Amino acid sequence: MVTNGSAGRTGGAGKLDITAFAFVAGYTDVIGFIALAGLFTAHVTGNLIMIGVESVGSTEGLFLKVLALPVFVGVVALVRLTEKRLIQRDRDAAVPLVAVESLLLAAFASVGLRMQALGAGTDSHLAMLAGLLAVAAMAIQNALSRTSLADLGPTTIMTGNSTQVVIDLVDLFSAPPESRGAIRARLGKMVPSVLSFAVGAILGALAYTRVGYAAVALPIVVLVVICVRRARSRTAVPAR
């Protein structure tokens, strides 16, 4: 029985997945923030801060940020229930769930483009639908980073990763030789994740300011490529 869909994927393919998922999260998070009045889609608890800010100032997008929290919780719970069933059937749970993530991002882009065409504001029903679709997509990635993709480490929130990188860099020079391998392994996951998230955020901001919601096509393509590659590696028969 498969207990973890990421088992054995911490080599080259695993590092590529780390970079790709972190890029998607940074890219999507910044688009939500710019387009939807400061909505965090990947770092969803950041909306608690925005709710506090908007409770004493502008209330633009406030209801959306409040709704984002229960939607996030509900999707994470649903992902976990679905994941358990897939694992019981000896399937890589990450493939179908990441496919759903890509579909939710496609729906996010579609609704966003409709918003642009109609000139709808950030408090419109379309804006709320778009934002919650993006939150749901990132909730899937958040959940998987704790379960089937746990070997990759966190790919949606970089505060913990950045903290661990600094701690490991400090410890690396004073650690005994037998501990340095584990430290280097963590750095090998955390550093690419942080850098890729930052690159995704920068490129996402640039792309959105130029083409609007059409910019969401890039993370969708990245997720589809991940799904196809993982599915092929899962079904590949080792040469004898």
UniProtKB/TrEMBL annotation:
Pfam families: DUF1275. The keyword GTP-binding does not apply. InterPro entries: DUF1275. Keywords: Membrane, Transmembrane, Transmembrane helix. The keyword Transmembrane helix applies. The chain crosses the membrane at residues 20-42, 62-81, 93-113, 125-144, 190-207, 213-231. This is DUF1275 domain-containing protein. It comes from Cupriavidus pauculus. The lineage of its organism: Bacteria, Pseudomonadati, Pseudomonadota, Betaproteobacteria, Burkholderiales.
